[in-house]
């Protein structure tokens, strides 16, 4: 049975597509029922899109608090993480410290959240008014994402639930179970992201050199006041794969992203000059490098373009943790000279937003080349 949410819960994505298509003079929408060649098991995948086997790394020796792992084991694991960041920009991890039962609870509570009426999600102030749907700034159909999300500052998620109005605490309404599990997931993903960021940074630092003039270690620049948790839902999509994305192609504008996707799949990334599909693996988390880490690493680590494809019959859920610095943090470099001029995270975000508004797409790091 397809997992459709109630119609009152759905964001007006179809209306946005119809309006955009009419405005662009592209005629009526192509429906998935007339475009079956673009689907496999309900998931739209281009014929040339192969399935990827991302590097799978057991990071238990890095995430556990005991001393049973040897220095050699930790060094080998760190080297595997750095190698994957250089060669793929994406990798998967197991024994990552985020309990499987916790992720199952998160999936269940997300479903309850997104099945609330659309008006409640969009206007009731839930999760500090962080609800987003589609792409309101889209100027062409290919810029429009068939998805909805709550993009929540970690500080609000982690705030005290004592009932006092402490300003930063998220409003979860009556969703107390969602509040509790979100806090646990955020804390566990934050710990994992910080560990991996330190490992990746240490792999690039040249010991014995003079302190780099612009060095600012990624893990040290990020905390709960700067990072984000994003709860995503991709509704079943009646639009052809040739006319809609679940999430448009992009790179992440952070240091590091930790992603838990469900069994449905749909994530694709660019490897070489081809899109490859990422097969969901139960219990594994996906980690990818963001633009800021590519800049900090002097392009050693790769921030890779990725996207989410739509599914004709089944909704998809995911949770993403974004390791971000404060807006006034200089991004720095692991070693001089850097191919990039000095810039802050705030400058970077502003330029991305300006480019998207002006051209309809993100330009990103090329704007900051020396």
Automatic annotation (TrEMBL):
Pfam families: 2OG-FeII_Oxy, DIOX_N
Database matches in PROSITE patterns: FE2OG_OXY (PS51471)
Keywords: Iron, Metal-binding, Oxidoreductase
Keyword Oxidoreductase: yes
Residues annotated as domain Fe2OG dioxygenase: 223-325
Requisite cofactors: L-ascorbate
Keyword Iron attributed: yes
Gene Ontology molecular function: any one: metal ion binding
Family label: Belongs to the iron/ascorbate-dependent oxidoreductase family.
The protein, known as: Fe2OG dioxygenase domain-containing protein
Species: Paspalum notatum var. saurae
Organism phylogeny: Eukaryota, Viridiplantae, Streptophyta, Embryophyta, Tracheophyta
């Amino acid at each position: 049975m397809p997992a459709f949410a109630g119609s009152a819960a759905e964001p007006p994505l179809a209306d946005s597509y119809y309006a955009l298509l009419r405005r662009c003079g592209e005629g009526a929408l192509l429906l998935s029922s007339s475009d079956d060649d673009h689907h496999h098991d309900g998931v739209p995948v281009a014929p040339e899109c192969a399935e990827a086997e991302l590097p799978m790394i057991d990071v238990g020796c890095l995430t556990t608090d005991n001393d049973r792992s040897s220095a050699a084991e930790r060094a080998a694991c760190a080297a595997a993480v750095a190698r994957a960041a250089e060669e793929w920009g994406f990798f998967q991890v197991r024994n990552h410290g985020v309990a499987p039962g916790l992720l199952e609870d998160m999936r269940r509570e997300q479903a309850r959240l997104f099945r609330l009426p659309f008006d409640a999600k969009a206007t009731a102030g839930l999760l500090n008014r962080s609800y987003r749907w589609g792409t309101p700034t889209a100027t062409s159909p290919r810029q429009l994402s068939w998805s909805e999300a709550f993009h929540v500052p970690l500080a609000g998620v982690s705030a005290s639930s004592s009932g006092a109005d402490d300003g930063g605490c998220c409003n979860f309404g009556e969703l107390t179970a969602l509040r509790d599990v979100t806090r646990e997931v955020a804390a566990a993903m934050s710990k994992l992201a910080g560990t991996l960021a330190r490992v990746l940074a240490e792999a690039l630092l040249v010991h014995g050199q003079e302190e780099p003039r612009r060095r600012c270690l990624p893990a040290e620049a990020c905390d709960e006041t700067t990072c984000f948790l994003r709860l995503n839902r991709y509704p079943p999509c009646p639009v052809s794969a040739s006319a809609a994305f679940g999430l448009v192609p992009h790179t992440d504008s952070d240091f590091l992203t930790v992603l838990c996707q469900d069994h449905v799949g749909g994530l694709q990334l660019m490897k070489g000059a081809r899109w490859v599909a990422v097969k969901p693996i139960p219990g594994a988390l996906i980690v990818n490098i963001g633009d800021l880490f590519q800049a900090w690493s002097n392009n050693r680590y790769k921030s890779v373009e990725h996207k989410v494809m739509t599914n004709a019959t089944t909704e998809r859920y995911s949770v993403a943790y974004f390791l971000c610095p404060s807006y006034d943090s200089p991004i720095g470099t692991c070693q001089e000279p850097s191919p990039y001029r000095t810039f802050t995270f705030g400058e970077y975000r502003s330029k991305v937003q300006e480019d998207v508004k002006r051209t309809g797409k993100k330009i990103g790091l090329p704007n900051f080349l020396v």
